[in-house]
């Protein structure tokens, strides 16, 4: 027998019932906003355990405010190895915005599976989800477990999702918050791998070697500061000046409290004093700077390269200034510097098990109080949240100085 409770709409809602195989698969699609079903108070349509979900999608590239849509759809009960999830927390990273703009190399395919009017992709690349139900062949996950997505590009800006068990990494949630779990996969993993994989640190010289980084206040930068401190590596951190000296000093102090060895401004990096600053910090050059992490590009990156010891790497992972990195020839010829790039998405796809191990390692540090949360601005995503408020948060991600990364936190 097939039974559905349908709420009649008085305003001509476009919701329609679909049944693809008798008695089993049905879904309710509604692309109208505000949906009259919701207006009628029918948040959950109870038909074989269907869950209503909202998702931020885009069907073409452009500015988030122009192309993002809030789409409502329903998710059936999971079968086989499927797992139903609800969102706990998902950040808005700069790369997520670049992806929507169409200027990011990885482009999730536009698909029709959600029933959007045009094929679409879902925004967001990382987040923490809770398992709400599992199909009968799921072996490693149970209701109440927390998971993160194995790969980027699977779409995390959604209140609920249905994925295959194989697409998920189970998280031991003991001692962790949704924020910590939801923000682990991109920034901390990037910082961790760049520090570990691009330099053969001399562990006997713990506390006597350095890394230098710009964008030190970014999610990656803050993670690098903390991991380097745990591993006995000094950090010289470059930040952008704030609007007044007091705010700049407050940010410096914030990063020093986090474990930075030294913090300078971009102006100091580019000034004639920079050599002297480095000389003093590194005990007259006896302590080598063996790695540079470049989040910014332009002159900023070239200046950092000049401080590197011979045979070191400068690893570019971001391009926040949108300026190319100019490589002084002398540094290549006489110092044998290596200029490399790192992209966590590609690395993670090639090294899935190592990615899981890296995440677990970071969680252990978090539980031990050695790895702290990034500053965030929580954006509560309630069922009735206005579409424009969600989109505005995404649009604002690449503008000006921000008090913290915006993160969607779903509240049922
Ligand atoms: N390659 C990879 O695998 C990978 C992984 C993660 C992130 N990323 C990239 O790393 C960058 C940072 O990402 P995130 O998530 O860590 O960012 P985030 O936490 O949102 O922070 C953005 C950072 O960029 C800085 N910034 C913004 N505009 C700038 C400009 N014009 N000049 C200099 N600095 C500027 C900000 O400085 P203020 O603090 O002064 O505002 C802030 O520190 C992005 O480009 C992102 O795409 C790459």
From TrEMBL:
Ranges where the Enoyl reductase (ER) domain occurs: 65-410
CDD domains noted in UniProt: ETR
Pfam families, alphabetized: ADH_N (PF08240), ADH_zinc_N (PF00107)
Compartment(s) of residence: Mitochondrion
Family: Belongs to the zinc-containing alcohol dehydrogenase family. Quinone oxidoreductase subfamily.
Keywords: Fatty acid biosynthesis, Fatty acid metabolism, Lipid biosynthesis, Lipid metabolism, Mitochondrion, NADP, Oxidoreductase, Transit peptide
Catalysed transformations (reactions): a 2,3-saturated acyl-[ACP] + NADP(+) = a (2E)-enoyl-[ACP] + NADPH + H(+)
Statement: the UniProt record of this protein carries the keyword Lipid metabolism: yes
EC number(s) reported in the record: 1.3.1.104
Protein name: enoyl-[acyl-carrier-protein] reductase
First-level EC class: oxidoreductase
Membrane-crossing segments per the record: none
SUPFAM superfamilies associated with the record: GroES-like, NAD(P)-binding Rossmann-fold domains
UniProt-listed GO biological process terms: fatty acid biosynthetic process
Molecular function as annotated in GO: enoyl-[acyl-carrier-protein] reductase (NADPH) activity
Cellular component annotations (GO), alphabetically ordered: mitochondrion
Keyword Oxidoreductase annotated: yes
Location (main, coarse): mitochondrion
